[in-house]
Amino acid sequence: MQRLNLILAALAAALLPAAASAQDKPATVVIVPPLSTPENVMTSAGYSGVIARQVADVIAADLRSTAELMPLGPENARIYPYAESTAPLFREWRKTGAKSLITGFVQARADGRITVACYLHDIPGGRELARKGFVVTPGEWRRAAHRCSDAIYAQLAGRPGWFDTKIAYVAESGLKSGRVKRIAIMDSDGTSHRYLTPGGTTVLTPRLSPDREKLAYVSFAGGQTHIRLIGLNSNDDRALLPGNAMSFAPSFSADGKRIAFSMAINGNTDVYTASSDGSDLQRLTATTGVDTHPSFSPDGTRIVFESDRSGSPQLYVMNADGSALQRISFGGARYQSPAWSPNGDLIAFTRVGGEGLRIGVMSATGLNERVLTRGTLDEAPSWSASGRDILFQRAEGTRTALYVVSVDGGDGRRIVTPQDGSDPHWSTSGGGQ
Amino acid sequence: MKRAIISALALLMLSGGALASAQRVPPPPMTIEMLQAEFSARTASDTVYFVGNSHGLNANTQQILMAQATWLLSNPSIRARIEGHADERTPRDYALALGERRANAVRDFLVLQGVPAAQLTIISWGKERPVVAGSSEGALALNRRVKTVLMR
Fold first, then answer.
1. Domain-by-domain residue ranges, chain B?
2. Of A221, A264, A267, A217, which is closest to residue A245 (Cα–Cα)?
3. Where in chain A is the domain with CATH 3.40.50.10070?
4. CA-based nearest residue in chain A for residue B131
5. Is the CB of B88 inside 8 Å of chain A's CB atoms?
6. Helix residue ranges, H only, A65-129
7. Could you tell me how many helices (H) and strands (E) chain B has, helices first?
8. Rounded to two decimals, what is the model's pTM?
9. In this complex, do A248 and B98 lie within 8 Å of one another by their Cβ atoms?
10. Taking CB atoms and an 8 Å limit, are A176 and B104 in contact across chains?
11. Dihedral sign, CA of A199, A203, A205, A206?
12. Residue A106 touches partner B, C-beta closer than 8 Å
């Protein structure tokens, strides 16, 4: 305990200036000791006591990636008995000086599954702030840990967490003149990486449905660019629309019921919507020129898209039925590939100007434009579930990689992928069980 | 029984083919690559280029396309796929739309010159198939293109 106090003091001293410059409030210190287990039992994913430690490792790593929270542990944290997981000895934890504590347990069940429970406590106040419990197969412990992190972050930071989220993107390899492109998906911490398409056909712009049951993407299969839907828990892979029209730029509504996209017919590209099964096609724009890259507002009532009807690509907002069209970008550049933030207040975009392609944000009414990145080929912004970060693609030389930048600006952070990456899409949090 | 019918049909088709080839001189064994080279040589270029985000066809481009139309009209059995491209400074979706708009402009011009629409198909590759790597102005200009690709 003495050691932890020392570490805490040193960390607080080191962290405070950095935290203060990143935002106004210093990070909240959260103690994350290993979870307990009532009985150390072998499960299909290892001993329950080992899983309990792994869950704490994942929660600590999740919280460490935030600006608002500073986890301590599981190393060197006090080990507590199972009985204390719901009723911690606050007088012991107060000695650490930390603000918050996470306890919990992993219990093997008779049906082969496990219970993962986590509790968030306020140490000075001596009370429980939140709790989460999941009954899952032992192999799903990692997702349960991410969902604990989401609940903890939501309670302490006051906005949704993004730990139980996935990143879909295009994995790239080979020469630029003929890149091999495959749709890939992974947890947002880089684990559980897998490929969804084999690589013989060029594929683009994956978009996860909000329930994570399916993924829309663009394929060149059969000599025509078209949107396909792939089932994430099945082998289903089919075209969204009947017929042979060129369709691309898919984007789900927040409730997953509709897809907005573009179709190009005889040199004219317009925005359409359809049900997520491809039925009930509606054409929303009918102007000569390119109308593309639609993105729904989080409440589903409006759509932002890019159009070159004025002569150069600019951002426009319209109702989800195509009415009440309004141009929102008026700066001295092209404004393209817009993405509406999960809070509804901001729109991220790719700004194409003299410096190249860069990621920026503006309000949903087009005010307060800010450029966030400093690359020359940064594009394809996608919001985190918290609305705090933007995932995008950066090309440098012959390589292409995924980066995250805070909506407050600052240096981007590279997301490690097994191969080059492009066209990222960050899922919403939660999703089905 | 079924098999016998199929064999009989195959025999019939074979003999029909033999008859047909006996009546005319067999065509020279031109591969599609050789045809494409001949097409390029006869028409000055199988590829035309564009400025900025435009899909406009300037006088030089129109001259090349007229020559392409003449060749396609005299080779009606050869189909052509009009492939539109954009440069890497174009965001992905806009590049797909722009490639389609360029390919469509070329297709429309060829049809106006009399080439049957059924002889032509179009595809947009967006910025997925740059012919030159690199971000220099010269490289970007060479990638903003429409190529007429012959197919049998």
1. 29-151
2. A264
3. 2-157
4. A177
5. yes
6. 90-94
7. 5, 4
8. 0.85
9. no
10. no
11. negative
12. no
The verdict on A295 touching B (C-beta cutoff 8 Å) is no
The one-character DSSP state at A424 is E
CA–CA distances in Å: residue A202 to residues A222, A318, A321, A389: 11, 32, 32, 29
HSE-up of residue A409 (Cα within 13 Å, Cβ side):
8
Contact (CB, 8 A) for A338 and A347? yes
User: Is residue B94 within a helix (H) or strand (E), and if so which, with residue range?
Assistant: helix B92-112
- CB atoms inside a 10 Å sphere around CB B98: 30
Q: What is the pLDDT of residues A133-187, one digit of tens each?
A: 999 999 999 999 999 999 999 999 988 888 999 999 999 998 877 789 999 999 9
- The nearest CA of chain B is from the CA of A223 a distance in Å of 7
* Per-residue pLDDT at B14: 46
User: What is the rounded average pLDDT for all residues in chain A?
Assistant: 91
**H helix or E strand, kind and range, residue A252:** strand A246-252
E strand or H helix that includes residue A216: strand A214-219
Q: State which CATH number among 1.25.40.10, 3.60.15.10, 2.120.10.30, 1.10.510.10 fits the domain covering A166-426.
A: 2.120.10.30
Residue B12: the pLDDT is 44
Q: What ipTM was reported for this prediction?
A: 0.85
Q: Which secondary structure element, helix H or strand E, spans residue A320, and what is its range?
A: none
* Contact at CB, B96 and A264, closer than 8 angstroms: yes
Residues near A363 by beta carbon (within 8 Å), at least 6 away in sequence: A345, A346, A347
What is the distance in angstroms between the Cα of A300 and the nearest Cα belonging to chain B? 22
How confident is the model over A377-408, as pLDDT tens digits? 999 999 998 898 999 999 988 899 999 999 99
Instruction: Tell me the shortest Cα–Cα distance from A181 to chain B, in angstroms.
Output: 10
User: pLDDT at residue A11 above 80?
Assistant: no
- CATH fold label, A2-157: Rossmann fold (3.40.50)
Is residue A6 very low, low, confident or very high in pLDDT (cuts 50, 70, 90)?
A: very low
- Cβ atoms of A42 and A51 within 8 Å: the answer is no
B46-98 pLDDT, tens digit each: 999 999 999 999 999 999 999 999 999 999 999 999 999 999 999 999 999 99
- Architecture of the B29-151 domain: 2-Layer Sandwich (3.30)
- Cα–Cα distance between B48 and B141 in angstroms, integer? 11
Cα dist from A287 to A32, A184, A308, A420, whole Å: 56, 35, 10, 37
Inter-chain residue contact A225 with B124, CB threshold 8 Å = yes
Whether residue A255 lies within 8 A of chain B, CB to CB, comes out as no
pLDDT digits (tens, 9 = 90+) for A88-135: 999 999 998 899 999 999 999 999 999 999 999 999 999 999 999 999
- For B108, name the nearest residue in chain A, comparing CA atoms only: A266
Q: Which residue intervals of chain A bear CATH 2.120.10.30?
A: 166-426
CA distance B120 to chain A (A): 13
